[in-house]
Input
Amino acid sequence: MLVRVLGWCNLEQINAAMKKTKFAGGRGDRPPPFREESKEGTQDCTPHPDASVGWKAAAVKNFMMSAEAIFRESCGDKLIETEAVWVCFKLHCEYFALLHLTSFEHADIVKLDGLIYRQQTLFLGIAHYTGLWKVKNHFATHFPVDILKFGPPLYWSEMKFEMKNQWFKKRARESNFIALLKTLAYETEMRASLDLFEGVFLAFLKSRME
Output
């Protein structure tokens, strides 16, 4: 939207701003540069419903944590603070960051609920976003109640499992896809046993949650 519709910036400016940004984690957690096909949309310049950047979960998380600052630098004076698309995006970034707290006060949950409501109300009112509403958008409204029931999302989200995707893919390729399920089960048990024995796995999870 910022590139193709509003014309506030281009991919080169965004990638330059990302290059100067210090992201958390290691090199593998750093968001890679946007490719030209990343701005692909529909013929009438609306966002593509299946748009994907193909990044790892950790890279997406790190980008979202710094996204507002990245786009502010990329857009410069062209940025209009009252533009609905920008306000909607800022609200999304704000509640995304709030979800990564390791503990919540009642005021945090009330704030989160308000941010989600405002963001989604704006989203549904933007003409360019017509037809992009998905079930996952609705699921975001459940976060405040889920936090009251189960605690901070960091401790029960699928993020930890997303980070294992590349590991499973590598093991699958190495097995030449022979007896795939058996091989993956065996490799997983052996890896988990070794990590637990050395205390590596628990330290890894703790570092990702902090």
About this structure: The CA atoms of residues 172 and 206 lie 27 Å apart. The mean pLDDT is 84. Residues 164-209 form one domain. Residues 106-125 form the longest helix (20 residues).
